[in-house]
Amino acid sequence: MLTMNLEGLEMIAVLMLVVLFVKALGWFGLLEAGYDSVEDELELSTVRHRPEGLEQLEARTRFSRKELQILYRGFKNECPSGIVNEETFKDIYAQFFPQGESSTYAHFLFNAFDTDHNGSLSFEDFVMGLSILLRGTIQEKLNWAFNLYDINKDGYITKEEMLDIMKAIYDMMGKCTYPILKEDTPRQHVEVFFQKMDKNKDGVVTIDEFIDCCQNDENIMRSMHLFENVL
Amino acid sequence: MAAGVAAWLPFARAAAIGWMPVANLPMPVAPAGKNKRQDEMIILNVSGRRFETWRNTLDRYPDTLLGSSEKEFFYNEETKEYFFDRDPDVFRSVLNFYRTGKLHYPRYECISSYDEELAFFGIISEIIGDCCYEEYKDRKRENAERLMDDQEDNKDAKPPNMTCRETMWRAFENPHTSTMALVFYYVTGFFIAVSVITNVVETVPCGTSPNQKEVPCGERYTVAFFCMDTACVMIFTVEYLMRLFAAPSRYRFMRSVMSIIDVVAILPYYIGLVMTDNEDVSGAFVTLRVFRVFRIFKFSRHSQGLRILGYTLKSCASELGFLLFSLTMAIIIFATVMFYAEKGSSSSKFTSIPASFWYTIVTMTTLGYGDMVPKTIAGKIFGSICSLSGVLVIALPVPVIVSNFSRIYHQNQRADKRRAQKMQKARLARIRISKQGTSNAFLHSKRNGLFSEAPEFTSSTEEDQRLNKSTSLLESQHHHLLHCLEKTTNHEFVDQQYYQQSYLEAGLQNYPSRSPSLSSRDGVSGTCCTRRSKKQHAPLQNASGPAHMQPLTQVHAHPRGLQELSTIHIQPLSTSRSSLNMRVDEPASLNCQSSQITTAIISIPTPPVTTSDGDAHLRAGPAHQNVVKVSAL
Questions:
Q1: Which residues contact B409 (CB under 8 A, 6 or more apart)?
Q2: What share of chain A in percent tops pLDDT 90?
Q3: Are B570 and B547 in contact (CB under 8 A)?
Q4: Do A97 and B27 touch (CB under 8 A)?
Q5: Any A CB within 8 A of B223 CB
Q6: Chain B contact for A77, CB < 8 A?
Q7: Burial (0-12, 13-18, 19+ Cβ within 10 Å), B412
Q8: Residue B80, phi-psi category: left (phi > 0), alpha (psi -120 to 50), beta (remainder)
Q9: With contact defined as beta carbons under 8 Å apart, do B493 and B436 qualify?
Q10: Per-residue pLDDT reduced to its tens digit, B381-427
């Protein structure tokens, strides 16, 4: 019994020594092989994007050359790499609404601007969107707004989508409002909206109903022209 | 608002078209771009070096010298440039601030010259970016301390009118201030040394007594040692009491480490006096004498190095803790292993695991007394592993502690970490303030009624232009954007206090619903100044008195569903345009002591009239949608 104990423990001791030795080898040997893969990944992450030329952009949008220059200078200043990803977009948008929480609405805006849905906003996307919003016809602007509300881009605005958008807008107000925001304020606002827009009461708003109704509403028509002199 | 983001303001405003179909209220008129000129270049000549930038770049920060009209003072007509007789190197950083929105502090610059340039150009130093802020603050602190040290060396006359107490405290803290203090300092130092030596010598055996037993000196010359002890303790007691008397905050002094050491040093003597010749507690009494050795710590008042050492140990507490923890883990593991390895061998000293602790500690710290040695092969193998690992475990945290000590010793700063924590808190406060600044600007301009939305009504053009100039175009556009959001959601931005007020009062007051037939109410104007106007209670005739005392919460307004309104706000609406004009005439209308308190007559169940003047005026607009807000008076 005594000898058995001794032998068993000796075996354990030897085993431990071997394991430690192998581990030590591993630390020195295997580490060097591991380093390379990490560095390879670093190369790819810096992506630069250069927009197409000034002439093409001038042709595709309704901005003049000077305006495009001013826009690009501002754009490049904030995003030197030439593209905006959603995080940066949300940060920029949040600066304008210090009191509230604008990230949800910024998310919807981002999707509305990112027409090719590649997850990042290039200068072309940016300027095309702005061209519609600032210089487009009423039809185009309403189209754009419809596109914004239609989250899944299926051509119909449902109450749920509208509720999401409404909540996002109300979130931007923040907490300190007067009067105090209640829980169902967005929902009731959505009800009002649907009462106005949904002519055939089928629970969804189509693009034609939307454009029709907006064109008949003087308030909305007037506000569409509000930002034309922004640039 | 950050500079770069200002370029995205047109985008944000354009995107606001997304709110338009949703809004039920008409939007406010956009601010007119005042004399839109093409982007022009400005030449800034700083001591001969020319910097060129766009005018818009400088306009981003209208409260600095370059962004405001103050730079016109430096305009040179002949050369058509702005000339500044300042340092061009520092000006680079200043101009980069306008370009990028971040202010950097170059390391090679002298801190005071940098500060002067910042003050000249009207830039506050708190907006230095995070990348350079630590460096800036460190340099500034060093500079301030150097100045303070210089001042202290220079001042030899103590400020007059110091009370006796303050003089004493000063003498205790700074021995160099007066001769008396110096004398006191040396005397106490001498007695500490004497006391410590006495304690040591007391235990040395000196000579043999007739019964051939070595007697320590303490027992041989009892009286002499007792007298020495008494003298020292008396001096220490007097010193402690004097310090206690002179301390500005006695409670804080009593809690400080040095005073605790003082007390512990002299207490055993008094306890010994009390418990004389009591056989039962004499054992405890002997133990108490151990505490006399704490008198040696009193030297730390005399030695800066000791204090630094103590502070280092305190600041390396985490490393020391790690060292201790890892050692304990290793000790337990190895002791267990050794115990079971050596269990088999006969006459083994490893009688239990705690007994093996001693072996493990001695081996790991490479002491190797040799009083306990393993005899089995397994035990020897594990023992060697133990000693090798001990070297490693101990060697790891030690360099950290060493580098810490040297850093602290070189910098010679005691409150380094405490100040760093304060900086962190201050930084967060700065960020919070700058965020608040934007929202406060909006609320402030709202209150001032700077939204001159109806150009045809506000015919007092000089006043208007004055108002307009006080906010830059950028700001007014940003405020217009926020205003549109308010209109879309039919709620208003308010500041924190107002919100808390109305939140509390929402619980208190729930106004009964009005019947739609009630068509007139008397309201009192003065929307903006809720706090101010609380003090002025204009006399009201009808029973709606209490309604005007506090702001009421309001259920969201339907354009039609008036019957559902349970609480009503009454908007100070005056139907007469002229009186409205009079209100606009006084800028900074926080001054609600105006005697122009116009009573308003409002007909509540008005259909949502979208007339052309519906959205003309800020206060007129909401009334048309039966969204009325009572003024708190």
A1: B305, B308, B312
A2: 0
A3: yes
A4: no
A5: no
A6: yes
A7: exposed
A8: left
A9: no
A10: 999 999 999 888 888 778 888 888 787 777 665 445 545 656 667 77
Please give the residue of chain B at the shortest CA–CA distance from A193: B22
Any domain includes A65: yes
- Owner of token pair 């827009």: A197
Tokens of B268: 């055993």
Evaluate whether B377 touches A10 at the Cβ level (below 8 Å): yes
Cα–Cα distance for residue pair A78/B156, rounded to 1 Å? 57
Residue B534 burial by Cβ neighbours in a 10 Å radius (0-12, 13-18, 19+): middle
Cα–Cα distance for residue pair A108/A89, rounded to 1 Å = 11
More confident residue, B630 or A134: A134
Instruction: Give residue B34's pLDDT.
Output: 52
CATH number at residue A205: 1.10.238.10
Q: Is the pLDDT of residue B611 over 60?
A: no
| Averaged pLDDT for residues B562-568 | 36
Name the nearest CA neighbour of B102 among B131, B73, B77. B131
For B617-626, write each residue's pLDDT tens digit.
333 333 334 4
- Residues of chain B found within 8 Å of residue A166, distances taken between Cβ atoms: 22
pLDDT in tens, B433-480: 767 766 676 676 666 654 444 343 444 444 444 444 445 677 778 888
Measure A93 CA to nearest chain B CA, in Å: 7
Q: Answer whether residue A229 is part of any domain.
A: no
Identify the domain containing residue A89 by its residue range.
2-37+52-223
Of A14, A66, A220, the CB nearest to B21: A220
Q: Which residue out of B11, B97, B336 would a mutagenesis test of the A interface target, given it has the greatest number of A Cβ atoms within 10 Å?
A: B11
* Chain-centroid distance, C-alpha B12: 33
Which pLDDT value is given to residue B338?
92
Q: Is residue A42 part of a domain?
A: no
Q: Please answer yes or no on whether B7 and A185 come within 8 Å at the CB atom.
A: no
Interface subset of B 596-625, CB within 8 angstroms of A: 610
Tally of domains in chain A = 1
Q: Is the ipTM of this complex over 0.90?
A: no
State what percent of residues in chain B have pLDDT above 90: 12
Neighbours of B553 (CB within 10 A): 21
d(Cα B166, Cα B171) in Å, to the nearest integer?
A: 8
Measured in residues, chain A has a length of 231
CA triple B383-B338-A7, angle to 5 deg = 90
Q: Are B568 and B604 in contact (CB under 8 A)?
A: yes
Q: Give the pair of three-digit tokens for residue B454.
A: 């109806």
Which helix or strand (DSSP H or E) is residue A19 part of? helix A2-45
The interface residues of chain B toward chain A in range 382-441, judged by CB-CB distance below 8 A, are 382, 385, 435-436, 438-439
B160 class by beta-carbon count within 10 Å (0-12 exposed, 13-18 middle, 19+ buried):
exposed
The minimal CB distance from B12 to the residues A16, A20, A96 is found for A96
Whether A186 is in a domain gets the answer yes
The reply to whether A49 touches chain B by the CB within 8 Å rule is no
Where helices occur in B101-178 by DSSP H, the ranges are 111-120, 130-154, 164-173
Residue B197 dihedral angles phi and psi, to the nearest 5°: -65, -40
